[in-house]
Amino acid sequence: MSRIILSIVICFVLDVLADFPTDPKPCKYGDSDCIVKVMNDLISNKATIGDRALNLVKLDPLPVTKMNIKQGAESPVNIDLTFTDNNVYGISSMKFRKVKGFGKSIDKKHELLLNAGKLSLAGPYKIKGKVLILPISGNGESNMTLVNCDMIVSFTGIPVEKDGETYMEATNLKLSTKPERLYYHFSNLFNGDKALGDNMNTFLNDNWEAIFLEVQQSMQSAFAEIFQTIISNVFSKYPYAKFFEE
Ligand SMILES: *[C@@H]1O[C@H](CO)[C@@H](O)[C@H](O)[C@H]1NC(C)=O
Question: What family does the Swiss-Prot or TrEMBL record give for this protein (predicted)?
Answer without folding.
Answer: Belongs to the TO family.
